[in-house]
């Protein structure tokens, strides 16, 4: 019996070899696990903020409109033809949009995913997420025009995201991300061009100056709610020279298809009021670090001096005739220009990737100085 008991624990050379190999595999697994963990720590420490979180309209929408019932979509060719892989994502551009460039500059991923895109999960959204919807505005009436996501609903999606992130990384880490993340807000153009100047309802209620004040009040309300949800680093982007969009120049027949100066004047006035709002909120909300980013001047300079930036065409867009087409009118059957880098605008309402890149490069040093 003792001999049999002893023999039952004798290892054959083959068995010993298998156990050694298993031991080596275990050590290798531990080694690679540590390497991955270290790389994650390095990536986290080299990023200036833990996440980029985006609210707004088509200027920053990464594809949320793809999954809602609206005619305002861009998830088809030739949109996205210069994006990685040449695929349309729902961005209203031939390539990337400003939040993508900003995210990369802050040490995060080069493209921010849309929250409603089912191919992404909370692990992807942890370092950057977009809630924006093309066609929306501060005014709920603006989002109703083309049945897109209103700004209040974007905030509801953000609350849902907060719950998912807490479940994913824990309350403490999630709260740190919420307070240290950079929030980008970009909207307002649709409130004027898609709503106020197109339909009579708001014009019968407000003068244009009163409507500007109405929108500023809505911006105040949204920002305050975002603050109470933990947001502390917020960049509020003003509206561009909206009278210079190809669509507006096309309809400006009496002005010989130059920029519609009435709309540009409103843009400048509205931006001034938004800048004043930012100053007020910083005084009123303890710990708020908020910045007004004015894209008007840089954008207008590009339009007036295109050659200085390598552009050849500012009055017409790259897609189709370049005068009025956007969304489904800019489609795979449209004739798009061979080189979008020569055009300031991709469709009649939205800039090319090159324009987005130049404007982003002007903003990034300001954002880094304030929020890193």
TrEMBL record:
This is GDSL esterase/lipase. InterPro entries: GDSL (IPR001087), GDSL_lipolytic_enzyme (IPR050592), SGNH_hydro_sf (IPR036514), SGNH_plant_lipase-like (IPR035669). Keywords: Membrane, Transmembrane, Transmembrane helix. One of its GO terms (molecular function) is hydrolase activity, acting on ester bonds. Coiled coil: none annotated. It comes from Populus alba x Populus x berolinensis. The chain crosses the membrane at residues 21-43. Belongs to the 'GDSL' lipolytic enzyme family.
């Amino acid at each position: 019996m003792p001999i049999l008991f002893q023999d039952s624990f004798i290892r054959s050379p083959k068995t010993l070899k298998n156990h050694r190999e298993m031991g080596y595999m275990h050590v290798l697994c531990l080694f690679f696990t540590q390497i991955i963990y270290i790389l994650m720590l390095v990536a986290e420490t080299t990023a200036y903020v833990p996440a980029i979180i985006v609210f707004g309209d088509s200027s920053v929408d990464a594809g949320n409109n793809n999954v809602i019932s609206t005619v305002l979509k861009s998830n088809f060719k030739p949109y996205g033809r210069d994006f990685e892989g040449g695929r349309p994502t729902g961005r209203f551009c031939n390539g990337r949009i400003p939040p993508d460039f900003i995210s990369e500059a802050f040490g995060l991923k080069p493209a921010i995913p849309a929250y409603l895109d089912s191919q992404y999960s909370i692990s992807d959204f942890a370092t950057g997420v977009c809630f924006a919807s093309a066609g929306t505005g501060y005014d709920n009436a603006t989002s109703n025009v083309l049945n897109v996501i209103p700004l209040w609903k974007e905030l509801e999606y953000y609350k849902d995201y907060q719950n998912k992130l807490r479940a994913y990384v824990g309350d403490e880490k999630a709260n740190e991300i919420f307070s240290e993340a950079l929030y980008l807000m970009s909207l307002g153009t649709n409130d004027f061009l898609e709503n106020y100047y197109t339909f009579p309802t708001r014009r019968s209620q407000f003068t244009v100056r009163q409507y500007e004040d109405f929108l500023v009040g809505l911006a105040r309300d949204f920002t305050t709610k975002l603050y109470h949800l933990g947001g502390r680093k917020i960049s509020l982007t003003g509206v561009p020279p909206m009278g210079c969009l190809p669509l507006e120049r096309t309809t400006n027949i009496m002005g010989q298809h130059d920029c519609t100066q009435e709309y540009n004047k409103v843009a400048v006035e509205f931006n001034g009021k938004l800048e004043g709002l930012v100053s007020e909120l910083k005084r009123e909300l303890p710990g708020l670090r908020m910045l007004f980013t004015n894209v008007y001047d840089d954008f207008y300079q590009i339009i007036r001096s295109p050659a200085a930036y390598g552009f050849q065409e500012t009055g017409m867009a790259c897609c189709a005739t370049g005068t009025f087409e956007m969304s489904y009118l800019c489609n795979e059957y449209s004739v798009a220009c061979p080189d979008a880098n020569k055009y300031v605008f991709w469709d009649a309402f939205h800039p090319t990737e090159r324009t987005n890149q130049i404007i982003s490069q002007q903003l990034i040093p300001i954002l880094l100085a304030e929020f890193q």
